[in-house]
Design goal:
The protein has 361 residues and is of the alpha/beta class. Helix content is 27%, strand content 23%. The chain has eleven helices and 20 strands. It has helices at 6-20, 30-34, 38-48, 58-68, 85-90, 100-109, 130-138, 162-175, 189-192, 324-330, 335-340, and strands at 2-5, 24-25, 27-28, 52-55, 73-76, 94-97, 115-118, 146-150, 184-185, 202-203, 226-238, 243-244, 250-251, 256-261, 278-281, 284-289, 297-300, 314-318, 348-351, 357-359. The strands form four sheets. The chain has a seven-stranded parallel beta sheet with strand order 3-4-5-6-7-8-9. The longest helix is centred in the N-terminal third of the chain and has 15 residues, at 6-20. It is elongated. The structure holds pyridoxal-5'-phosphate. Pyridoxal-5'-phosphate binds next to loops.
């Protein structure tokens, strides 16, 4: 069972908006709002006052437009994909143009509508490089209105990394070639916490809206937005020397009490948590023993009273006492990957926002 707290998402957005005002606070809702469900999330954010959204791909943009209606801006980070040309028009999407080819394509096929341009300030992933930028600013009319200029940070979650300041200087240098007042957008979630120099006219948080800690190593300033629970299906006692799970990777060092829980890697609990992670049974911590399988995990409940670890009870896999970052650490990954891997199988319940009640099956 996956509970998604839309009030927490909205509160996180308001908090970041207050922290960054007078900059505009957009919301990145790519990958189905990081796995939480783009429709309910964008409706909750729009109700909270968010007027700009970003997605990765045009099809995601179409879904967000359907959820949010006309009005808010929707930026497409992949830029202009000419085979999806119709979607930009019909769903009123604003591409973030990343290459000279995309810029020329939009000038020809964008119907005169505005677009962002992405300048790469040092991540070397997406956006115009220095020579391409130089050619653009000296090249005269773009052929369409410029909605703004974006750049993206590589190391924002490491505040002392020298690349942060180097990228800031490079981005400022690029903007200096444009008319004053051109809208600029730089900071992702962690970038917001690097300070006001990084905010410019618009910030673009994603992960922090969904409860991932934007300041790793420091207390999480965001509210948790997801709770993933699984039901105990069976409890058994095993003797010393007996194996548990696929591959017999766990051998009981002594007599143990083992509970089998209906959550597996198909639900987003990474297989890397095998013999490493833990869950909470009525607030008692229970280590995962053996392999995480597709539909199930096995946990050691030897030290937990029978009444707190019996069939039909729910255990917390991700929740208020075991946040998404802690689960990610168990799996050797980051909260972003844990959220986007959340499966489709279980019941999703949305709380708060404009979408009270159950959804999905
Ligand atoms: C994903 C993404 C963001 C949001 O990043 P978070 O770290 O999730 O806040 C912002 N900008 C760009 C270009 C992105 O790709």
């Amino acid at each position: 069972m996956l509970d998604i707290d839309l009030d927490a998402v909205a509160a996180n957005w308001r908090r970041l908006a207050a922290l960054t005002a007078p900059a505009e606070c957009a919301a990145v809702v790519k990958a189905d709002a990081y796995g939480l469900g783009a429709g309910p999330v964008v409706r909750a954010l729009a109700a909270a006052g968010c007027r700009s959204f970003y997605v990765a791909l045009p099809d995601e943009g179409r879904a967000v437009r359907a959820a949010v209606g006309t009005g808010p801006a929707i930026g497409v980070l992949a830029g202009y994909l000419s085979d999806a040309r119709q979607i930009y028009q019909t769903s009123d999407l604003t591409p973030v143009l990343n290459t000279p080819l995309q810029i020329d394509g939009w000038a020809a096929g964008g119907g005169g509508r505005a677009a962002f341009v992405h300048v790469d300030s040092g991540i070397n992933r997406l956006g115009l490089g220095p020579e391409q930028w130089q050619a653009l600013v000296t090249g005269g009319d773009l052929g369409f209105p410029l909605a703004g200029v974006l750049s993206h940070l590589a190391c924002a979650d490491e505040p002392d990394h020298p690349l942060n300041r180097a990228q800031l200087a490079a981005f400022r240098g690029a903007l200096a070639r444009l008319p004053a007042g051109t809208r600029a957008s730089f900071a992702n979630s962690s970038g917001i916490f690097l300070g006001g120099d990084f905010h410019f006219g618009q910030v673009r948080p994603g992960a922090a809206l969904y409860g991932v800690n934007p300041t790793p190593g420091r207390p999480n300033p965001m509210r948790p937005a997801v709770r993933l629970r699984g039901r105990i299906l069976q409890v058994r006692h095993i003797d010393r020397g007996q194996a548990v799970g696929y591959g017999a990777t766990y051998i009981a060092p002594s007599a143990r009490k083992v509970a089998t829980v209906a959550v597996g890697y198909a639900d987003g609990l990474h297989r890397a948590a095998s013999n490493r992670g833990s869950v909470l049974c009525q607030s008692h911590e229970a280590p995962i023993i053996g392999r995480v399988s597709m539909d199930m995990i096995t946990i050691d409940v030897s030290d937990i009273p029978d009444h707190a670890a019996r069939p039909d009870l729910w255990v917390d896999v991700i929740g208020p006492h075991r946040d998404v970052d802690a689960v990610a650490a168990d799996c050797g990954t980051i909260g972003y990957e844990v959220l986007t891997a959340l499966g489709r199988r279980y019941r999703r319940r949305y709380r708060g926002g404009t979408h009270d009640g159950a959804a999905g099956g």
